[in-house]
């Protein structure tokens, strides 16, 4: 959240680089788990609801398996989330000490959402054999709601860093704090919508990719087909929505954060007929070796070639973000999102034609990679958001260099945190692989009789 993956600051700012790298690792790792925390409850509730209506044993087994996965990811995510909460205060005291009272509300509400999620996920996991099916299904609804709410509250805090409002600065002190106005700042709608939809896409494509690999290996039974189709359908529904939200976010940047948009597009010259640049890198104060679509950016921003788009020439060099990483990250995000949209369209067309999956093995091959593509789009999107705000941690108000902890030794903490995440990664992958390899045929379906087909009411 604090522009952590940006390049190192001025000479002698080694601890700033350490703080950035540590927070970047923590956020980049945690955000993937957070996405599954938002999207997995929707998948397992969908499977259980259909199992209640049809009595389908495959759906019931999927719901139970996904519930176990959600429980593991929630537990690990709680660890990484706790690390992040400490890092915000330890690494960035200049931010929290000055503006903590302004952005404290969304963090407090996120804490409440987290506890609600923890309580009900525990009830959901341990009540399969103790509650009637429909009551058990309802016990999972707060998990879904709390997961979405938690993501919303956290992203509003980041949105505030991009559009700081809700306070008055008098003699270097924050006064007249309006926490609700700060939380619902101008950047809140585009950022929260973009992120929550991305979370459902990561959870959907990520889950479906596991079953796509299994189907490529010959497991075409109903269990694996449903395990692929339910999450892939969810992600495919959100893919075109994300295209429109991305356009909405870009137009917001053009109006409110034109420097970030200029860095994302590698645009140095202000004026009409601004090109849309694909690829390339910055050298000698210009973008080189990029493929340019004439007037493309002006058309996207204002639907007219004559639309004037602000370039980096209007910004002092000291206030410009590092253009090459922002531009390449932006291209990667858009590219991955576009490919996922095309894959979703292929799936929709085949289903419209034959009510079945595409017959080509290439579809499953691409679907097996869709989870990685979705995560890559997510991570590069956050690089654009965070690095594109540099050198500001609070846009136009507080520089990242002024927010970092001046105490020496931050590199030691970064190394320790990196080792912790290596351990968490290995442990999580090991547990999930053991769960996936467990013989499902030996696992009795919970309350099988209760999940028999329901008579119409």
TrEMBL record:
<feature type="transmembrane region" description="Helical">
    <location>
        <begin position="66"/>
        <end position="86"/>
    </location>
</feature>
<keyword id="KW-0408">Iron</keyword>
<feature type="transmembrane region" description="Helical">
    <location>
        <begin position="193"/>
        <end position="214"/>
    </location>
</feature>
<feature type="transmembrane region" description="Helical">
    <location>
        <begin position="410"/>
        <end position="432"/>
    </location>
</feature>
<dbReference type="GO" id="GO:0019646">
    <property type="term" value="P:aerobic electron transport chain"/>
</dbReference>
<dbReference type="GO" id="GO:0020037">
    <property type="term" value="F:heme binding"/>
</dbReference>
<keyword id="KW-0812">Transmembrane</keyword>
<feature type="transmembrane region" description="Helical">
    <location>
        <begin position="362"/>
        <end position="384"/>
    </location>
</feature>
<keyword id="KW-1003">Cell membrane</keyword>
<dbReference type="GO" id="GO:0046872">
    <property type="term" value="F:metal ion binding"/>
</dbReference>
<dbReference type="Pfam" id="PF01654">
    <property type="entry name" value="Cyt_bd_oxida_I"/>
</dbReference>
<dbReference type="GO" id="GO:0070069">
    <property type="term" value="C:cytochrome complex"/>
</dbReference>
<keyword id="KW-1133">Transmembrane helix</keyword>
<keyword id="KW-0472">Membrane</keyword>
<feature type="transmembrane region" description="Helical">
    <location>
        <begin position="226"/>
        <end position="245"/>
    </location>
</feature>
<dbReference type="GO" id="GO:0016682">
    <property type="term" value="F:oxidoreductase activity, acting on diphenols and related substances as donors, oxygen as acceptor"/>
</dbReference>
<keyword id="KW-0479">Metal-binding</keyword>
<feature type="transmembrane region" description="Helical">
    <location>
        <begin position="328"/>
        <end position="350"/>
    </location>
</feature>
<keyword id="KW-0349">Heme</keyword>
<dbReference type="GO" id="GO:0009055">
    <property type="term" value="F:electron transfer activity"/>
</dbReference>
<keyword id="KW-0249">Electron transport</keyword>
<keyword id="KW-0560">Oxidoreductase</keyword>
<comment type="similarity">
    <text>Belongs to the cytochrome ubiquinol oxidase subunit 1 family.</text>
</comment>
<feature type="transmembrane region" description="Helical">
    <location>
        <begin position="140"/>
        <end position="161"/>
    </location>
</feature>
<dbReference type="GO" id="GO:0005886">
    <property type="term" value="C:plasma membrane"/>
</dbReference>
<keyword id="KW-0813">Transport</keyword>
<protein>
    <submittedName>
        <fullName>Cytochrome d ubiquinol oxidase subunit I</fullName>
        <ecNumber>1.10.3.-</ecNumber>
    </submittedName>
</protein>
<feature type="transmembrane region" description="Helical">
    <location>
        <begin position="106"/>
        <end position="128"/>
    </location>
</feature>
<dbReference type="InterPro" id="IPR002585">
    <property type="entry name" value="Cyt-d_ubiquinol_oxidase_su_1"/>
</dbReference>
<feature type="transmembrane region" description="Helical">
    <location>
        <begin position="23"/>
        <end position="45"/>
    </location>
</feature>
């Amino acid at each position: 959240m604090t522009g952590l993956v940006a390049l190192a600051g001025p000479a002698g700012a080694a601890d700033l680089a350490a703080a950035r790298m540590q927070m970047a690792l923590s956020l980049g790792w945690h955000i993937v788990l957070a996405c599954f925390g938002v999207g997995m409850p929707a998948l397992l509730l969908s499977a259980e609801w259909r199992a209640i209506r049809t009595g389908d044993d495959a759906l019931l087994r999927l719901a139970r398996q996904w519930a176990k996965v959600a429980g593991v990811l929630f537990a690990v995510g709680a660890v990484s989330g706790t690390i992040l909460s400490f890092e915000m205060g330890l690494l960035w005291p200049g931010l929290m000490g000055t503006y903590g009272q302004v952005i404290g509300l969304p963090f407090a509400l996120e804490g409440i959402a987290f506890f609600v999620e923890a309580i009900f996920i525990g009830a959901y996991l341990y009540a399969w054999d103790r509650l009637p099916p429909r009551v058990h299904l309802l016990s999972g609804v707060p998990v879904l709601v709390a997961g979405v709410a938690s993501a919303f509250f956290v992203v509003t805090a980041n949105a505030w860093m991009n559009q700081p409002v809700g306070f008055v600065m008098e003699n270097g002190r924050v006064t007249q704090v309006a926490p609700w106005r700060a939380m619902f700042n101008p950047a809140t709608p585009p950022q929260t919508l973009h992120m929550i939809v991305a979370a459902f896409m990561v959870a959907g494509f990520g889950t479906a990719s596991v079953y796509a690999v299994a189907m490529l290996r010959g497991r075409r039974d109903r269990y694996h087909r449903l395990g692929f189709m339910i999450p892939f359908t969810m992600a495919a529904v959100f893919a075109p929505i994300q295209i429109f939200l991305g356009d909405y976010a870009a137009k917001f940047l053009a109006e409110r954060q034109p420097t970030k948009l200029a860095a994302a597009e590698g645009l140095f010259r202000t004026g009409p007929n601004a090109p849309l640049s694909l690829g390339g890198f910055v050298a000698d104060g210009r973008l080189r070796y990029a493929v340019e679509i004439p007037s493309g950016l002006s058309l996207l921003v204002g639907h007219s070639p004559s639309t004037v788009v602000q370039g980096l020439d209007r910004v002092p060099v000291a206030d410009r973000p590092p253009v090459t990483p922002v531009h390449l990250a932006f291209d990667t995000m858009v590219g991955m999102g576009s490919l996922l949209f095309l894959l979703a369209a292929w799936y929709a067309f085949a289903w419209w034609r034959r009510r079945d999956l595409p017959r080509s093995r290439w579809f499953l091959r691409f679907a097996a990679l869709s989870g990685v593509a979705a995560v890559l789009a997510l991570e590069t999107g956050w690089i654009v958001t965070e690095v594109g705000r540099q050198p500001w941690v609070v846009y136009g108000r507080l520089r990242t260099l002024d927010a970092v902890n001046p105490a020496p030794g931050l590199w030691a903490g970064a190394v320790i945190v990196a080792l912790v995440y290596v351990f968490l990664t290995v442990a999580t992958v090991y547990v999930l692989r053991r769960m996936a390899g467990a013989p499902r045929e030996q696992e009795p379906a919970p309350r099988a009789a209760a999940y028999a087909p329901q008579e119409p009411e």
